[in-house]
From TrEMBL:
Signal peptide: none annotated. InterPro entries: GH, GH_1_N_CS, Glyco_hydro_1, Glyco_hydro_1_AS. It comes from Metabacillus fastidiosus. Belongs to the glycosyl hydrolase 1 family. Pfam families: Glyco_hydro_1 (PF00232). It is an enzyme of class 3 (hydrolase). The keyword Hydrolase applies. Coiled coil: none annotated. One of its GO terms (molecular function) is hydrolase activity, acting on glycosyl bonds. The keyword Signal does not apply. This is Glycoside hydrolase family 1 protein.
């Protein structure tokens, strides 16, 4: 078996999000956020993809699994001990904005929320695990959504600036690696979570979406500059959802269509955050969709000065496109659309599995930006079965991860500068897209189910021991 040479100090670990694992949604003076009002089950995807969501909690109609999640809020010591047992070098997590500023616009930060993350970071450092912290991960304060209209409103930039200053100053001696907005480009298909508003049926989606993006780009640049000033030894990156777009065939019209789709989805946000300027291709897009952004004097200079140190990205699937497609060709289940790729298998949830696409993605990103890359999400959502003896034999997950790690090794051989790999959902938690517990990603099984039942007991899966060996050999044994 071929062995790969991963860099010394490579950041092996796992990735999570506060809104999907913490629970304690109304404890510690935490305020409500977007995730707290999203129901579990099939309704969630419809809400995310369709207009008109009211951002209210309807307990008579829906369940809300994020409210308790897997109770990391009370069980973080137990979970971090398990991460340490696997040998994690890094743990990607997020800070819940509403634990720090419950409504988002308070004059002072919430002491209970600040103290909670102090305890989490201290526990990680006890085991030598480096926190990799996402500042905003799909959990915008609900008050900023309802009262200000989300990121469409320029005032939110000021609130975000106060938030980042609070966390940078508090954790400057505890956190070295940061990222600004999780999967920032996902707002192009799911604006609720990333941009904090729902497109209304009568509303033109283009103007509000790109205006909100401009405000996030300004906020991200402010965060980058503040991080460098307050924590000089820090690294702060952007974070995108990357899915390489393949043309269905060699018809030049389909090739051009695939290129345009890839430019808009994969590169637009990264170009602004990494290169520090709006890309040339977006100017034509704005012209064709009659988009005029409102900017303040100094915005473009600020964006130029506040570029990311590295590119964090999630990779789950590729996407295949052609200009004219029939409904029968749709890649159902592929959350970002496209048509079926006949060369790829799919997961239990219909996501196309394409390890070679990760190598392609790494090469494309590094060729374009020449900045360090960090795979901060990648994993397989699947149904897991607990055997009578208590074991969970998730060989399918091992196979999936092995092939993706092999693709990273090939990319490193290609010359890509790769900082680390944090597998998504290293412990089972609530699915972002479907709000289900049954869609499991973890090396650690959590006894919690879609009907709300379960003891929350943690169990090591077969993949737990496999990943421990991967980390222990720095990727030589996969």
């Amino acid at each position: 078996m071929e062995k790969f040479q991963f860099p010394k100090g490579f950041l092996w670990g796992g990735a999570t999000a506060a809104n999907q694992m913490e629970g304690g949604f109304n404890e510690g003076n935490k305020g409500l956020n977007i995730a707290d009002v999203l129901p579990g089950g099939k309704e969630r995807y419809d809400i995310l993809m369709n207009p008109g969501f009211d951002f209210e909690i309807h307990t008579d109609q829906y369940s809300y699994p994020n409210h308790e999640a897997i109770d990391f809020y009370h069980r973080y010591k137990e979970d971090i001990a398990l991460f340490a047992e696997m040998g994690f070098k890094a743990f990607r997590m997020s800070i819940a904005w509403t634990r720090i500023f419950p409504n988002g616009d308070e004059p002072e930060a919430n002491k209970e929320g600040l103290a909670f993350y102090d305890r989490v970071f201290d526990e990680l450092h006890k085991y030598g695990i480096e926190p990799v912290v996402t500042i905003s991960h799909y959990e915008m304060p609900l008050h900023l959504v309802k009262e200000y209209g989300g990121w469409r409103n320029r005032q939110v930039v000021t609130f975000f600036e106060k938030y980042v200053h609070a966390v940078f100053n508090r954790y400057k001696n505890k956190v070295k690696y940061w990222m600004t907005f999780n999967e920032i480009n996902s707002g192009l298909v799911m604006p609720i979570q990333g941009l904090g508003f729902s497109i209304q049926k009568e509303e033109d989606k283009y103007g509000p979406t790109f205006q909100a993006y401009h405000h996030q780009f300004v906020a991200s640049a402010i965060a980058v500059k503040a991080c460098h000033e307050i924590i000089p030894h820090s690294k702060i990156g952007c974070m995108i959802l990357f899915a390489p777009v393949y043309s269905f065939d060699c018809n030049p019209e389909n090739v051009m269509y695939a290129l345009r789709e890839e430019q808009l989805f994969n590169y637009f946000c990264a170009d602004v955050q990494v290169r520090g300027e709006y890309p040339s291709f977006i100017k034509r897009y704005f012209k064709e969709h009659d988009i005029e952004l409102e900017m303040e004097e100094g915005d473009l200079q600020l964006i130029k000065e506040g570029t990311a140190d590295y590119i964090g990205f999630s990779y789950y699937m590729s996407r295949t496109e052609k200009k004219v497609k029939a409904d029968s060709e749709a890649a159902e289940g592929n959350i970002i659309g496209g048509i079926r790729n006949p060369f790829l298998k799919t997961s239990d949830w219909g996501w196309e599995i394409d390890p070679e696409g990760l190598r392609i993605s790494l090469n494309k990103l590094y060729d374009r930006y020449q900045k360090p890359l960090f795979v901060v999400e990648n994993g397989l959502g699947a149904y897991d079965k607990v055997e009578e003896d208590g074991s969970i034999n998730d060989d399918y997950r091992i196979d999936y991860l092995r092939e993706h790690i092999r693709a990273m090794g090939e990319a490193i051989e290609d010359g890509v500068e790769l900082m680390g790999y944090t597998s998504w959902g290293c412990i089972d938690m609530v699915s972002m897209s479907s709000g289900e517990f049954s869609k499991r990603y973890g090396f650690i099984y959590v006894d919690k189910h879609d009907d709300g039942s379960g003891t929350l007991e943690r169990k090591r899966k077969k993949s737990f021991f496999w990943y421990k060996d991967v980390i222990g050999t720095n990727g030589e044994e996969i």
